[in-house]
Specification:
- By secondary structure, the chain is an alpha+beta fold.
- Helices cover 30% and strands 22% of the residues.
- The protein is flat and about 65 Å long.
- The chain contains 6 helices and 12 strands.
- Helix 3 packs across helix 5 and helix 5 runs antiparallel to helix 6.
């Protein structure tokens, strides 16, 4: 699963899942959906940070036990350690939609947008309560999502073609980050794809390469994690059908928060 700070928790496609004609409405009214996603991310993040100071219970996923009251060192968490779980994704999606329709209503005080604003405001409140009751997912050692890899080519035995690639980080415990944004490149005849990464986080110990001929259908090309700063070059044997790109780190604990009334 991705971390909350990797990027926006949901995207335009998630908004369209609830409001099919939203892009057309936004374009007609001059609404920047990307800006609203960012604003919702800031608002949800601020509420998560406030929730981290409230007393609650902690579920230790590895030990499988609950602690009420909790260890003081664990009861407070940083946003960088929050893992995106389904309730958190729902909250961000509904919060974004509430912001969009709030803006649409307030621009012209157009009553046709008021029911949508109220609907998504209530859904955002419901999703936040769901997250607080089931627990905010937290990981001890967050691995941030890598930046898109650098793609080029060297001389090699392969014909021309287009490659799509993404990378992940590993830590010393073998945990893997969410995948980077895909990069794409067309390589000429008699060449071999080369993939390199940018600056790794301090916690990273290795990295992995995922490549495919079709966007969204990438598989792991290295059987063992690669040493940092060592480029990966497509071998003469070509691509392998490795494991697909995963979702990233899983929560190692869930932090519940007492229910409280939100203002929206």
């Amino acid at each position: 699963m991705a971390l909350f700070t990797d990027e926006y928790v949901s995207d335009v496609s998630d908004l369209i899942g609830y409001e099919t004609n939203l892009p057309e409405v936004a374009a007609a009214e001059g609404i920047d959906l990307s800006a609203k996603l960012k604003l919702a991310h800031i608002e949800v993040g601020a509420q998560l940070q406030a929730a981290s100071t409230r007393p609650g219970s902690i579920y230790h996923g590895q030990a499988g036990v609950w602690n009420s009251g909790g260890d003081a060192n664990l009861s407070r968490f940083d946003l960088e350690k929050v893992v995106v779980t389904p309730p958190l994704k729902l909250w961000h999606t509904f919060q974004t939609l509430a912001i969009v329709y709030r803006d649409l209503y307030n621009r012209k005080v157009n009553d046709k947008y008021l029911p949508k604003w109220n609907e998504y405001k209530e859904l955002a409140r419901w999703a936040a309560d769901l997250l607080y009751q089931t627990g905010i997912g937290v990981t001890w050692n967050p691995l941030p999502r890598p930046e898109a890899p650098t793609l080029d080519w060297v001389s090699g035995p392969h014909p021309s073609g287009t490659h799509f690639a993404a990378i992940t980080w590993n830590d010393a415990a073998g945990e893997e980050s969410a995948g980077s944004i895909e990069g794409a490149i067309s390589v000429p005849d008699a060449s071999a794809l080369r993939v390199t990464h940018l600056t790794p986080p301090a916690i990273a110990t290795n990295w992995n390469v995922y490549v495919g001929a079709v966007s969204g259908e990438l598989t792991r090309q290295n059987p063992l994690p690669l040493p940092l700063f060592t480029p990966w070059v497509l071998p003469p044997s070509g691509l392998v059908q490795g494991s697909p790109l995963g979702e990233g780190q899983k929560p190692q604990m869930f932090r519940t928060v007492p229910r409280f009334l939100q203002r929206g």
